[in-house]
Fold this sequence. Notes:
Blueprint: H1 15-28, H2 32-53, H3 63-72, H4 78-97, H5 102-124, H6 145-161, H7 164-179, H8 182-191, H9 193-207, H10 212-227, H11 233-246, E1 250-251, E2 269-277, E3 280-288, E4 291-299, H12 305-317, E5 338-341
Parallel strand pairs: 1-2, 4-5
Antiparallel strand pairs: 2-3, 3-4
Helix pairs in contact: 1-2, 1-5, 1-8, 2-3, 2-4, 2-5, 2-9, 3-4, 4-5, 5-10
Amino acid sequence: xxxxxxxxxxxxxxxxxxxxxxxxxxxxxxxxxxxxxxxxxxxxxxxxxxxxxxxxxxxxxxxxxxxxxxxxxxxxxxxxxxxxxxxxxxxxxxxxxxxxxxxxxxxxxxxxxxxxxxxxxxxxxxxxxxxxxxxxxxxxxxxxxxxxxxxxxxxxxxxxxxxxxxxxxxxxxxxxxxxxxxxxxxxxxxxxxxxxxxxxxxxxxxxxxxxxxxxxxxxxxxxxxxxxxxxxxxxxxxxxxxxxxxxxxxxxxxxxxxxxxxxxxxxxxxxxxxxxxxxxxxxxxxxxxxxxxxxxxxxxxxxxxxxxxxxxxxxxxxxxxxxxxxxxxxxxxxxxxxxxxx
Length: 342
């Protein structure tokens, strides 16, 4: 029996969601690539379920096409679409690149859980549902110092919100999961594929009998729940990194930083993080070669938007040359700052 400390609340919607989440958690420690592939499958099933609920399910549709149709319908908006897309892209990369990236796997576990919370809020009509803090998976054998610190911080947050008995139960469940072989887990999940397909067909059949108003109410709930998704600052930055990377920028807000000695280079499109200005450190400065293109402030949703815009403008006006970079308009550059809000 597959159980999941982070995805168990989805059992009432479709047990296969829990199985895929549990597999991703199980594989995180030893095989982050497979973890990412399972999370991609989780995202695919979640999109298919929401599509079936509004009568748009098509078993032959590619994930990207289904996502776009749901976006055009107003269901996958803003950050929700971005999170689905990140699961898709990271899963595809894991299939081909074999990077063994625990940091990306951990971020995507968090993204998938946020999507699960969104889905649960939509379908239970409970916009305030909160399953508690993310429960970190077991440490991988090989971990960087940064990953070790992140997992430790997640455990501290968990311990602050749970009783000793609850923490003991979580530890026991994780140990039991670890003892189940990967082959057994995969076999159980595979056996449930047809059940999931039958479930999708049944949901689609019900949706086709519903009124336009009922469908519209589902869309409205999905938008409301999407507006309430709130990633922490680290995951906001990592999501922005992934989007910038997909757009052709070299970016890693934890590694490609000014303090790590990263500077603009001819022939490279670099988004360098934590760049010093006269008014503080900018989240990103974008360079095409040596040319400064923009000063960007990335903020999580709950941050005051107007304050963030003003801060980005101050950073751009306070830009100071650190080396051989070139400012638009020469030394009198008084550029406008840009803001990315997740």
